[in-house]
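Loading example: each entry is read as two labelled lines plus one structure line.
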Amino acid sequence: MPSGSNSIGAEGNGSSTGAPAVVLEGVTKTFRIPKEHRTTLKENFVHLFRRVDYESFEALSNIDMRVEYGDFFGVIGLNGSGKSTLLKIMASIYEPDEGRCEVNGRVAPFLELGLGFNGELTGRENVYLNGIIMGLTRREVRSVYDEIVEFSEVGRFMELKVKNYSSGMLARLGFAVSIHVPAEIMLLDEVLAVGDVEFQQKCFSVFEDFSRQGRTIVFVTHDLGSVERFCNKVVLLEGGRIEARGGAQEVIATYKARAV
Amino acid sequence: MRPQPRSLRANLAILGELALTDLKIRFQGSFLGYLWTLMKPFALFAVLYVVFTFFMQRGQDDPYFSLKLLLGIILWTFLADCTLVGMNAFLWKPHLVTKVYVPRIIIVMSSTLVSLVLLVLNLVAYLGFHLIFGPRPPFGMNALLFVPYVLLLYCLGLGLALPLSVILVRIRDLQHIWEIVLQMGFWLTPIIWSVDMIGLPDESKRELARRLVMLNPMARLITFSRYALVDNGAQQLRPILALVAMVGVVFAVGYLIFSKQESSIAERL
């Protein structure tokens, strides 16, 4: 495995090895949002038999993209441009209305904060539960448990119910679990958003390791600095469409030019 | 479309872990823990028994009336619990739908498995009653039929919980509607009564009423279970096959509805 695969030179090499990690073809996702808002009981009652009007909101329209194995794939764009929806489709949480999404490999998702954490369970119980959900056996979780706790640095709170965690603690523990499960493809949505500087540094060193190991990562963030630093390919989403794609620097330049 | 199909073993491990978690959360922080769940059917039994045998002076001609009543209540309690807990699986555990991917049938099944565990615990308590107040010897060969009956009961409960769970995500009123259905079902099913108590004077109408009652798979399950455990009666095959067919249809239709709807629940939660 050649090192330094995070350089631009790695672009396109993956396609020779066979099926890509993620393929999206013509993916469209539409959500229905209710038009009028009924709040009072009376309003609800009076209009009991009238159908609520829905407006459709196209979160993603006709997206084509390929993520090759070993890509550190950045997704940037304004709020509401469809980044999280895109990741949720890759994680098979949403099913596309049209088009096709093919994922070849096991997926470790880190979507919004905190994985599939159950607020009523303690940190420890959640580590086990989510480790098992993501494909570890109980014994395997036990063997990486100390590492997870050490990485998250919330060791003091492992016996506390997760509903009492701060968002920073949730993100730390969730991220720690998702990097310790065996997955070919990682989906990361805003990992850096709530952590402090120290945690961000920690994430960066993990990212460095990952790109050295040639792991496949789809990375959604607003932190353009880390996109430039780690991503070999970037797409810019705008209103559910891909506005630009290519190397990190040029796409970021387009993004900045458009945002002004 | 799905991320690499996981092995059956991995899915079973997830199912077991989620069921254990549900069980833990259900009794967490409660002092008497599962004793409360035992208490529910037994309290209902005590009240109905007093009203029925002392106030209304019924059930005197059957020495095992109390056992049959208790058994009926326990089986019904399972169905009610299983469907209510199962239908709420997504609403109570949204994180398993919106933040990670778990095959959605596993989310509903894990909830209903907890009800199954409670059913088994209730049946252990029933066994105590049966040994004290039941016939001698306590069980005959026909009691073995009760095992497939419990399996059918679970399939029925899951077959109802699956469609209810996906419809509830769209139509929240279903919670209240289903509670009413369960309440009506409790009285329309031979739980505190039995099919031979149907007292229409006209023979043909009586037969018709019996047939109608027995269209309800729960009526069959409870009646046959009493027959197998308490009366030790020889059971004919045809009514059992009819029961299997009914449960099969409920499960097949329920599963079909579930699999058509499950892909869109994340955005509706």
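Chain B has one domain: 14-268.
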